[in-house]
Amino acid sequence: MASGKRENEVQGPGMGDQIEQVDATVLQYQNQKLIQQLEAQKAEMHALEGKFKDLRDKQISYDNTLIAVNKMWNQLVDDLVLFGVRAGGELRCLQALEHEDFSIDDALASCPPEEIFLCRLLRSGYVDKNRGSISVKAVQEALSLRHSAIVDLMKHLQEAIAARLARNELLASALHGNLSSEDAIVQLRNHNGYLREVISNMREAIDVVHLKHNRFTDEISCYIDNHSREQSEIKHLSGDLEESMAELEESRRKLVILQMQKHGPSFINASIGIAVNGSISLDKPADKTMSWRELKDSVDEAKTLAASRLFELHEAQEDNLILSKQLEELQSQLKDDKYVILSKPYSLLDDQLHHLTAELERYKGLTEFLQADRNNILQREKELSTKAESADSLKISNSNYESKIEELELKIQKFINERNNLEIKLEETLQDTGRKDFKDEIHVMASALSKEMEMMEAQFNRYKDAACEALSLREEANSLRVLLEKKTLEHKTLSDKCAEELVEIKSLKALLEKLENEKQELQTYLEMYGQECFDTRTIMEIKESENRARMQAEYLRTVLDEHNLELRVKAANEAEAACQQRLSAAEAEIADLRAKLDSSEREVLELQEAIRIKDAEGEAYIAEIETIGQAYEDMQAQNQHLLQQVADRDDYNIKLVSDSVKMKQTHGILLFEKQALLKQLQQVNASLEISKMKVARGEEQ
């Protein structure tokens, strides 16, 4: 009985050892299968991540293509609308300048990822929900809709250009004299009304463009404010992340210290480490010197210690999971700079910012062009108004000249009557007085009268030439003043442009420094934000994996530093070369502007000197004209003793001279008066011949 009990006792521990060995092998086999499944899942996950990255790259390329196509399309629409307004079209096409924002579209959420490009290009949502794809018919309809809108704008532009050409042809025919005066005046009035309408339309278009420019500036300022606020939030969250990482590292160190303190003897530690790692040596026999009881006690103690350590490990893993969740939440809130830069919304916003800046520059150029065109139209309107005023003044002067001609005809008739009376009186005096003395007196009077007439004609011709030359000099002085004003305006514009170029160079340098600083900050953020991975492994494996990961991280950090250094050097060299090119171009342009400025200053000085010389010549001519007038008045005062007819004729000549001084540029009237004077001179000569004949007849009698 006792021997049977001993055999059972001996067989009992043997069976227990066999069961434990079988359980260990089963657990090891299950662990190996789980590890293989985990590796397969990791490989599948890496493959899916690679596919997702490829799809994301394709999506980014599609988005870039979409942005480029939309930019070109919108630029075409804007150019057509602005050309139509400039050609004199209506303002109903200005609504086409309001483009929709395709980057924020709620309808795109229902589209599959491979069809987002077409949805955004066509600005339509999910077209066919049953089939899950965009039909060809919907694509054709959307494209035909945009194409029809462009065709309508082209037709509107062609109609505006045709109407503008027709108006120009009518205006040219009116200016060349192909139409009558009334039709030409009506045509000019219609053209003036048309120009006023075009100017009002252009002003409204400029107001619309200015409002759009203000809206773009507000959006850009809002984007800059949001960017600065996000940068401050990123800095704050990075500080919180550093604190949490420091706390996590400290908790890890405490956990390692506690595990080191709680380890038992070396044999127990080795057995626990081997058992936990799943590498139990089944072939190694137990120590024969140790009894089964001591072995069982040691195994129980190892199990209790392993259970306690396993509980502590689970607690540490739970703490690590909590900390990892907090870290993931912080990282999801922080949106790692690399993820933010590579994200689709950031790229879309960046492209939209570039598009807005390009649109802003283009609209600035268009506003400057429209402003210049507006100035030209205003100048043309002023010229037309001055021409109309000159035509009115010519009409008034013609009416005045007609009235003066009538007065001169009346005076000529009066002079003829007075001459007849003088002839009658002369005949009576010839009959009553002596012949010889009267004949001598008549000869003296005739010679003096002929000399005075020659002197008057010479003075009249000199005065007329001086008046014409004075008018030409005044016109030349006015043209020189206008040219001087233009040159001064060009000088001001060139100086303003030079100052703007200097300011732009300074802003570009500041922007370059700012971009370099931001790039350095982003690089530091990229180096700081590393993701932690946590595993349910043993302490030894964790230490080994940490050492390997640390070594690999150091290697990757060195490689990344070298790569970043190369990229920085390359980017710095490219930026420096671009800046040098822009600086050289700006310096060349500044030199050209300075040369133009010097040449304009020299031209201004030359024009001022020419104006000064012309003013002096004009003053000399005016003084000469005044001396001639004074001499003429003195001569008329000395000849008051002549006959009343000659005195009246001298008064009439004085009035003609005074009228010629006051009116200016009355060449035709002066010619008419000259002809009248020549006729009167012929009549006087004829009367003198008649009187001579009468005197001769009287002498013969």
Automatic annotation (TrEMBL):
Record localization? Nucleus
- Keywords on record: Chromatin regulator, Coiled coil, Metal-binding, Nucleus, Transferase, Ubl conjugation pathway, Zinc, Zinc-finger
What GO molecular-function term can you cite, just one?
A: zinc ion binding
Give the pathway. Answer: Protein modification; protein ubiquitination
**Keyword hit for tRNA-binding:** no
**From the record, what ranges are coiled-coil?**
24-58, 234-261, 391-466, 498-532, 569-617
List the catalysed reactions.
S-ubiquitinyl-[E2 ubiquitin-conjugating enzyme]-L-cysteine + [acceptor protein]-L-lysine = [E2 ubiquitin-conjugating enzyme]-L-cysteine + N(6)-ubiquitinyl-[acceptor protein]-L-lysine
GO terms under cellular component: HULC complex; nucleus
Q: Which GO terms describe its biological process?
A: chromatin organization; protein ubiquitination
Q: What is this protein called?
A: E3 ubiquitin protein ligase
Q: Which organism is it from?
A: Ananas comosus (Pineapple)
